[in-house]
Structures are given as structure tokens and as C-alpha cells.
Amino acid sequence: MSALDELLGDGYEDVDVGEGYAPFFEVGTFYLKVSKMKVGESEQKGFPFFVAEFEVVASNNPDFPPTSHVQYMVAKKEKRYAEMYARNIKNCLWGVISGFDPSPEAKESAGEKKTLVAAVSEAQPFTGKPVKAVAQKNKNGFIVPVFSAWDGELPAEALPWVN
């Protein structure tokens, strides 16, 4: 079974899009461009993962200056959390693709296996796509980014962050 098949499992398309967990983001506002999306398997522990890598265009977090990178990763470490892993991947794709467009069509597109398969393919259709992420700590202390649409033009508030 491939890492992608293992990550998706049987019920991937039955899980609703929801809140995601981002182990590599820190608290802040980020203007980003998608670098790459991929799936793989951990060399140390053998669990499958999904990762979206972004180049920072601007951020109010000084640890992430322009041209640095930040990652959003979902690692399927325990089968009992398969639904949560699927929801977190869909959350990332939904935000990157449509900026959380609430329309049923946008949600459905983000939730289809073929969308994830395309996103992690050699073609990398989302590379260069601008996206905004606001990362905050949730009630459990995890840093959670919420992705939204961004047209690629920095707003006035973000201009000081690039200098």
C-alpha cells in the first residue's frame, strides 16, 4: 500500500472539513505562496504524512522573515485518529484552494481524493498560489493556522513586515 493510500484510508471522503493542527506554524499572520504539497512516510517511525510547504512573503512573526519557509503537516501516527487526520488535510486544501469558500461546491472539491492526489502530484498545480494564514493557539494549546484567500498584493498593514 502506498503512503498516500495509507494516509487516506477507506473513509477519507466521508469526513467533513474542519479545524487543522499545524506543528510548524507559530502564532502570527502570514502572507504565503505555496511551494509544494507532498505525501510520504516517516523514515524513523514509518507513519504516513501530508505536508504543505509555503514560502513566506510577509509575516508579523519575526521568526519567519520574507523568503523563509513554514510547513503545515498532518502525520497519521495513530489509526484511531484517522478521521481527524483526514479533516485536517481537507481543511488545508479547502483553505488553499478556495480560501474557505463556504459553497457546497468548494467544500466538495476540497474533500475529494482526486483533489489531494492532484495537489501532491508531480504537476504541483498549487505551486505559487498566494494564501494568507492566521495562526493562533487553540484551547488545547496547539497552534492552528486558518488559511484564507489572498490576491498576492500585500495590504498596507503587512508592508512594514518585509523591511
What secondary-structure arrangement, pairings included, does this model have?
Elements: H1 3-8, E1 28-41, E2 48-59, E3 69-75, H2 82-98, H3 104-111, H4 113-119, E4 130-137, E5 143-149
Antiparallel strand pairs: 1-2, 1-4, 2-3, 4-5
Question: What's the short story on this structure?
Answer:
With 163 residues, the chain is an alpha+beta fold. It has four helices and five strands, in the order αβββαααββ.
What can you see in these coordinates?
The chain is of the alpha+beta class and 163 residues long. It has one domain (3-146). 23% of the residues lie in helices and 29% in strands. The protein has helices at 3-8, 82-98, 104-111, 113-119, and strands at 28-41, 48-59, 69-75, 130-137, 143-149. Strands 3-2-1-4-5 form a 5-stranded antiparallel beta sheet. Strand 1 (28-41) and strand 2 form a beta hairpin. Helix 2 (82-98) packs across helix 3. The longest helix has 17 residues, at 82-98. It is globular.
